[in-house]
Design a protein that fits this description.
Blueprint (H helix, E strand, L loop, with lengths): L4 H28 L1 H9 L6 H41 L2 H16 L6 H35 L2 H6 L3 H15 L3 H19 L13 H25 L2 E2 L2 E2 L2
Antiparallel strand pairs: 1-2
Helix pairs in contact: 1-3, 3-4, 3-5, 3-9, 4-5, 8-9
Length: about 240
Amino acid sequence: MSKTNQEIFENDYMPYIVSRGKFCTRIVLLVAYIPVLVLLFYFDANPTADSIFTGMVSMLSILLPWYIVDPISLQSVLGVPGMYLTYMAGNSKEVRVPASTQALNAAGYQLGTREGTVISAIGISVSIFISLSLMTFLAIAGNMIIQMLPQTMLDALQFLLPALFGALFMDRLLNSPMKLSLSAIPVIFIAKVLSVIGVFAILPFGGGYASIIICVVSCMILAKVLCANNSEEEKPVVNGEVSS
């Protein structure tokens, strides 16, 4: 007797996806360390314990919240196959989620259904092939273009990273409460000054991570306080009293 769609999905498709997904993610995890090993053994780059610890604190302060939030928020949209694909390819919210939702809309299926899970995986797979093709082309073409640029423009490219972070900061500044964004500037300035004059040097591992922790924790507290105050100000007044 032929299998039903549900039996194929639950007994054949999903076990295959989970098995291959685990295998591929482990391979990707190992491949991700290849550049580190090349720098360590071929170029003899030996980072100090201070720089490693500072880098870990910096990255954890950025990525740890998303490590918790992303699987919860994206699971219902991407499905199990889409989650494996997305975490191997990256660009979850910027590219993969739109690709998944557009594929579902075009096919006319709903999130969370068996058909929707398959369609979502197909949409994400297509987006990955397109991304890889474009990135490969742009990487090759970009290298050729850079070689043809005059030296003055090459010198200007040194300011690309500060300009990028400045643009990101202005985007956050314009798209968040002004008081919250401006209140973070004094905290950042004070932490930077203390780092420059060497106050944090007495801490273990060089103390380079201290300014990061101060900025992250202080800005979280400021955001909590200011948002609470804004909520109190926006409560409607009923019969001369602020409603709860």
